[in-house]
Amino acid sequence: MLFETLKFTEKKQLKFEKVLVFNEIGKVYQLTLDKTKSYKYFKSAENMAMELGNDTLKAYCQQGLFVHSMAQNNETSARFYMKSIKDLYKNNGNSDQIYRSYSNYASYNFKFGQGELAKKYLDTAIYYASKNRKIKYLKVCYANLGYYYFTVEKNFKKGEEQYLKSLALTPKDTISQDATDDYLNLSYAYEQMNDFKTANKYMMKYIDNMVIIYQDKVNSNLRDAETRYQIEKVETEYKKRQQELLEEQSKNQKIFLVIIALIIILSILLYFFLQNMRLKEKNKFKDIESRVQQNIINATIDGQELERKKIASVLHDNISAQLSSAGLHLSAFSAITKTDSQEIAKTRAILKEAHDKVRDLSHELLPVLLAKFGLLYALQDLCEKNSNSLLHFEYSGNVFTFKRFNEEFEMKVYFIVTELLNNILKHSEATEAELTINEEKSQLKITVKDNGKGFKTTKTTDEGFGLTQIRARIQNMNGTFKVDSKPDHGTTVTLNIPVVE
Hints:
Elements: H1 2-12, H2 15-31, H3 35-52, H4 55-71, H5 75-89, H6 95-111, H7 115-131, H8 135-153, H9 156-169, H10 177-192, H11 196-222, H12 225-262, H13 267-337, H14 342-365, H15 368-373, H16 375-386, E1 392-397, H17 407-428, E2 432-440, E3 443-450, H18 467-476, E4 480-485, E5 491-498
Parallel strand pairs: 1-2
Antiparallel strand pairs: 2-3, 3-5, 4-5
């Protein structure tokens, strides 16, 4: 959607709006952890803002570059953008923008070990956030100030006061992520002050909220409205067409009976005519049923791939991060109290094991190599991983490994090839296999060949994902699918798929 908007701004020469779109695209890539593309679009937005001579817009774009530099631990770059933003904002009198400047200074000094200086800027940021009546900004400031008292002054009483202030700003909010984080920090503060009863109370609130947040996110990802709509639409069209065919067949039969009653002489001709009509209708019905089944299969697989991607994102970006955060709090607790009891050690080990399992599950759902480096690199790695002393996979082709295609196209092709390789591992009893990928005239030609036991191609096979489902998938991508196999002569599968750049 953003890229469509970008095309519109370029067509209409809307330079100001184009800067905003560039910046939003940078934020999206920042959320997907694509640091290279994120920096590219943030920098393009900054350059265009400079061409327009709009200082406020330039500072707005540099905020994304500042966050990017902080995430990269690039102190020099972060300091440059931090000072530049402050210089651009300091003369305009906008308290909201001045707040951002001081908040940047506080974040920078926290990040690079200047706690006392960070608190000074944070106090100023709180003043401007209060002046501008920005509750969201105040909650962030109080949380950061509480973190300061915890880590720098070791004053857990003052830290407690800040998190209570944060909760008091939105008393009706008891289940948001901000409230949940405040509960966890309050539990930690009371634990440090030996008020274990109150600490347990807030820890239970934190755990209850985490269960609700996790369930909401998982349920949201599992409910893919678009996929369901597509499946229901296909089923509705199938039923409608089936009813039309039945009505048409019934009508033909009635006409036939009327003609038989009126003209006995033409009974034989009409009989053959009707048989011919029935055969055509039957073939038409089978053809429609086959297309409908293919559409249902493709819609279902699209939904599964989208769910796979969304669930992997939730596991990686949320659950894994929360487990890491809990482990860090335990580490901080052990370091502060200088204790390392057996229970704490066991808890940290359990958290690490859970984090590793969540990470591994996330990578199984959506391979990291596929997301970061692309289809060809991921398939080459897949061949290497599946090779062993009994079966060797060879990878070859004329396409550069680092070339990228459309994200959805890459995901579909990757899981199709993965299923073909799995079939070789499970059923072929082969010792040698080869995956060849060539690009010819905007067509991706993929050949998967093995020297295994083979099979009769006249026999329908349906193993796991199944050759039938793969054929339906390829046809949906406007490609071709061919299987060449004979018993004891191995199997060769050839795919030709139009490239989606």
